[in-house]
């Protein structure tokens, strides 16, 4: 049944998949570096941790026509959580409880946490990918990056939920 499928949604992204300006660094209405709210459903049985990677999959790079640009890397999300609130990035300790152990990695701006994009053009697709993992003891070191995370989770992924949005 489709309703039992592991899925990722955001109350901030409308049914057309339009990503709100508020979470970018684009002009009026943008609130710099406020992460969007996310919710997930039907986490696979046996999940011990969740991890999230958010990328602009249409980012241009001078040396390569299209290279995904990492905007957010999050590891050690307890499967007991049903989502993260708006503006969560950088506030794990403040929010406390089950959120306190979450570890945010470095994005392609070389800083930890969410960084809203400033785009040279519109129509970019943002991919939010949530991984359900059978291991809650990922050894990622102090500086978590997308590459380190993806290497560490190999062989431990029970499921993936993807949310696409366009800005």
UniProtKB/TrEMBL annotation:
Residue spans crossing the bilayer: none
Gene3D superfamilies, alphabetized: PEBP-like
Pfam families found in the cross-reference section: PBP
Cited PANTHER family: PEBP (PHOSPHATIDYLETHANOLAMINE-BINDING PROTEIN) FAMILY PROTEIN, UNCHARACTERIZED PROTEIN YBCL-RELATED
Matches recorded under NCBIfam families: YbhB/YbcL family Raf kinase inhibitor-like protein
Protein name (record): Uncharacterized protein
Originating species: Juglans regia (English walnut)
Upper taxonomic lineage: Eukaryota, Viridiplantae, Streptophyta, Embryophyta, Tracheophyta
């Amino acid at each position: 049944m489709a309703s039992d499928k592991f899925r990722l949604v955001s109350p901030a992204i409308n049914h057309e998949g339009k990503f709100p300006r508020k979470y970018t660094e684009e002009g009026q209405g943008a609130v710099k570096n406020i992460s969007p709210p996310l919710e997930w459903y039907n986490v696979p049985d046996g999940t011990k941790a969740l991890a999230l990677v958010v990328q602009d999959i249409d980012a241009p790079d001078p040396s390569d026509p299209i290279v995904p640009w990492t905007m957010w890397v999050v590891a050690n999300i307890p499967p007991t959580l049903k989502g993260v609130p708006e503006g969560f990035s950088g506030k794990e300790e403040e929010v406390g409880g089950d959120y306190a152990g979450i570890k945010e990695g470095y994005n392609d701006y070389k800083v930890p946490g969410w960084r809203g994009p400033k785009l040279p053009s519109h129509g970019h697709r943002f991919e939010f990918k949530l991984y359900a993992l059978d291991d809650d003891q990922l050894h990622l070191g102090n500086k978590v990056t997308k590459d380190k995370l993806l290497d560490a989770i190999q062989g431990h992924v029970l499921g993936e939920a993807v949310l696409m949005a366009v800005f």
